Amino acid sequence: MGKKVVSVVGATGVQGGSVVDALLADGRYTVRAITRNPESTNGKALAARGAEVVQADANDVSSLTAAFAGSSAIYAVTNFFEPFAKSGPKKASEVETQQGINLAKAAAATSTLEHYIWSTLPDAKTISDGRYLVPHFEAKNVVDRYIRSDASLLAKTTFLWVTFYAQNYIFPMYKPIYVPTAGKYIQVQSTPADVPVASMGDATTNVGLFVKATLANPQKTRNGAFVLAKVEDTTIGESLQRWAKASDNKAQYVQVDRETFHDIWPLWAEEMGVMMEFWDWAREKSWTTTSTSKVVSAEELGVKEGIVSLDEAFKVLKL
Fold this sequence. Notes:
Layout: E1 4-9, H1 14-26, E2 29-35, H2 41-48, E3 52-55, H3 61-68, E4 73-76, H4 81-87, H5 89-108, E5 115-120, H6 124-127, H7 135-148, H8 151-154, E6 157-162, E7 164-165, E8 177-179, E9 184-189, E10 196-201, H9 203-216, H10 218-221, E11 225-229, E12 232-235, H11 236-246, E13 251-255, H12 258-264, H13 268-282, E14 295-296, H14 298-301, H15 310-316
Parallel strand pairs: 1-2, 1-4, 2-3, 4-5, 5-6, 6-11, 7-10, 9-13, 11-14
Antiparallel strand pairs: 8-9, 10-12
């Protein structure tokens, strides 16, 4: 009997690439890397490493259905920030919602499917009783509800919550800014330094380790369970100081008022700024579910070996 096929969407991105790496290293699966351009440098590199590289576009259900054929498991992820950078949060939400539904439809049409892992985020709007709507959360939450409307697909589904990771420092509002006259870096936010941050450390390694463990424990992770991909807790201010120490720099956290923050980071403030406000408001409720489904931790899945911490990730992060 041949190896089971695991299809990985966004195989050349941060999350998908991490999943491909982990599953290729594991050796128990045939890894089908789904990408828009198999002939790209990254696509060819995946093929050279032993992945089956297949073309599909999240905007095209038929291409996804064809690419998923024969898959036992699917890892599905969308990229909100690609359309966001071009058209802002409203359009990006529309695009991501449709792409997520396309992925779910194609997965539901895959007769061989045993496990569907969907990369999503908590329902901030519901948790906060409508106080906070984070666009890249809400778009995924619409897809969550679509999956829940299909009992057959839901029975095979894991909702994976990917928490804050070191690579988020490439985003403009997190990337430390060097101030020559002060001889140090600053990070400007509109929320306090003690905002709690659930972290998964290095996404390029750890996402794949969580997915591998999720696949290995279907009895714990399917039927609409949430897997919390978190390896440590920190705060936004502490994470900056950890970056500074890891990169041998000095850094200062600077809190400004909301209006100033929106002036500095137009559009981005409507997205990541609102996320920080939600975390500040929700605190320990930030990564909770409003459904009756269980939340599965790293400890319950035995995710430990090979994990790369936030500090280790910061040491090699190039900004």
